[in-house]
């Protein structure tokens, strides 16, 4: 069997450059009326490999193709629910084609832009959707090697919100800090920030109530955290924090409405044109 496949693969390689092959001559192997052609292997064999590796690849591919066909034919004859499998495959195929076409329609026809007024209205009318699971914070985080020069000065700067101190920290961090995370101007999830410091935080709300400045060291690093502002878990998120989620939710709703309108228009038009014919009443269908 291996010799047979080796020969077929060898024939494939010998004729790979022959552009005058007939359809019959292009055939490599037949299994119960199903034929594998040399053209089926084009583009499958990796480029840049040696002739011997190409031969081995072709041989393995052909053998696997033959086995797959044989197993499928046996399964089709002996599987009791083969027709049900075929039905499910057809249903999946239709769903996949429909989904891909709808996605293309959305990309071509639907604008992703959401008006600011629509976002604000949605936020005001759906506040409960934006209740925080975790606390959020604004501030500054630094992770600096304990052997870094001028660390005592940095410990003074990080507590200040002045532009001068922030500029000093930024310049210092370029050469010395392992992490310099500035988020005075945006809300971030406190759990993400707390994950950077070697201190167990079991209750974020309680921790934030009693800690504005956090200074912790281990054998390798000094961790400095300035909590400028925080909003507790359980509170309604501020609009600027919730905005990206609002946009996502509104776009999803626009997609649903667009697809529903498209389907209804398609249905109505098909009925008017006579492309849909109701051959029985609902009562008769029961």
What does this structure look like?
- Strand 5 and strand 6 form a beta hairpin.
- The protein contains 11 helices and 6 strands.
- With 286 residues, the protein is an alpha+beta fold.
- Mean pLDDT is 87; it is low at 17-22.
- The radius of gyration is 33 Å and the shape is flat.
- The strands form 2 sheets. It has a 4-stranded antiparallel sheet. Strands 1-2 form a two-stranded antiparallel ribbon.
- It starts with a helix and ends with a helix.
What keywords describe this structure?
single chain; 286 residues; alpha+beta; two-stranded antiparallel ribbon; 11 helices; flat
Mean pLDDT: 87
Distance between the termini: 57 Å
Instruction: Estimate what percentage of residues fall within beta strands.
Output: 15-25%
Q: What form results from the Cα inertia axes?
A: flat
Indicate the topology.
Elements: H1 2-14, E1 27-31, E2 34-37, H2 38-41, H3 51-78, H4 82-109, H5 116-125, E3 136-145, H6 151-157, H7 163-176, E4 179-189, H8 190-194, H9 204-210, E5 213-217, E6 221-231, H10 239-273, H11 282-285
Antiparallel strand pairs: 1-2, 3-4, 3-6, 5-6
Summarize the structure.
By secondary structure, this protein is α+β, with helices and mostly antiparallel strands. It contains eleven helices and six strands.
